User: What shape does this take?
Amino acid sequence: MTEIWEGLVTAVKLIISLDPEVMQIAGRSLAISATSSAIAALICLPLGAVIHFNRFPGKRTLINIIQTLFSLPTVAVGLFVFVLFSSAGPLGGFGILFSPAVMVIGQVVLITPLMLGLIISALSATDKAITDTAVSLGASGFQMSVVTFREARFGVLAGLIMGFGRAISEVGLSLMVGGNIRGFTRTITTAISLETSKGDLELALALGMILIFIALVINIGLNRIQQR
Amino acid sequence: MALIETVNITQKYGKQEIIKNINLKVEQGEVLALIGPTGAGKTTLLRLLDLLEVPSSGSIYFGGEEVTASKRLRLQARRRMSFVLQKPVVFNMSVRDNIACGLRWRKEKESSINQRVNNALELVGMTEYSSRNARTLSGGETQLVAIARALAIAPEVLFLDEPTANLDPVSTAKIEEVLAHIIGGQKTTVVMATHDMSQGQRLAGRIGVIINGQLLQTGSPGDIFSTPRDTRVAELVGVGNILGGVIANRDNELVAIDVGGGVIQAISDYGIGAEVHTLIRPEDVTLAPHRDASSARNTFEGRITRIFSVGALVRVELDCGFPLLAVVTRRSAQDLNLAVDKGVYATFKATAVHVIKRWN
Assistant: This one.
């Protein structure tokens, strides 16, 4: 018990003193997850619009599949990306396995279904009369999508934030394809996992607190959005 | 050339036929009211005319050009029209930005947008609401903003779907006033759907009756109200007395119709033996305590079976051998001392009876 208490005290000290290693790991984590969230958003916003605003056979099934992939296991994506980018794999030629780049690719694959699904539900939740009104006022297809996104903005933003939250908190994927290389691919979650197994609880606890703090900020943000 | 013309349009949702083979011409500058019970297909017809929906079959011409099949032509034509939905929604932005939407989408200059938005705001009397978020408005105010938004683009055709349904009488009066102003002052063609017959009568120059997806009759309000084409239209426009009968006798254009329990005198071209419906508007029936030596051809002694108030009027149901409905003012109901089971004389002119052929 005293060990945990001492660990906590040291952890707080590490954070307050802006310990270079802790800051470096946290910064790397944020950078990778922010990049993957931004790329996923660039894919999901237009794709979500295309799926929502068009009628095509199998639309319902497609949305069901997307929703099923919300809970895609991180290790499954890790395995898939690993095989793809390993030296013997089809994309092995890029030589980017165990780099932040491949972690970003893996996280994009992981969070795209979640973002896409949440964006589609946010668009579906807008009143059908909004799109009718826009079209009747002479909006083109694109103009109508823009105004619908505007109406659904809080729901869409919530979807983007949920995607970021899943990216920054996952560990299996980062560990498998990033390799947890110190100062390069080591993120908050992989570092916690490593330091805990080494018995270095201070660093693990400090990083854990930072992760919880990030989660808290995200939740406060989400709550604010949903209350508007 | 009609501004909008539909040729045999039919709209199906799944197996259900909402619009059945409608041929309708909307002339430039006219005010057309589509009346019919809820669920008759009025909204769907408006949506088809505004090219929000594509008919399952048939064609729609706008300005003489067929626009049914081409997405580009539909957008072009739609940009010359606007539509106020039955339950209007406003975008989550200021009143001003809401009204500017249609103009921004047409890539108008910002200076002209400002001017036209101000004019539209003034027209509906909402100038001081300009910077309010439109979502914070009441139902009547929202309706006014929706009308201003639709008018800001200076449409050639304005579609209104039940513009005053679900509104309180004060808001309704305000909106009718604005609409009357638009109709009177601009060259806008207006097509409105309403289930309120009197509103159609007040605002429209021509009325189309839609029942069960069919356009049953079009004509001036006077025509529709005095000479409905069949019993469905008659019921809709409030002809309270619809009696089946047979023409028993004729003297020049005056006929005697046996309605079973009584003989009604009317003016008609149909020959003896023809099976007809006689339609009598309840407001054309007068009640008196004694047999009256008036010029009216039809006087019947009846017993009151039911009395009930409708606003400032009193509806009186009589048994004259056949059922007859009369409407009198509350004042005359008191003067006549009307009560259930009392006897009273009902009188109406032969010219007040509209006779239509019965189709079996």
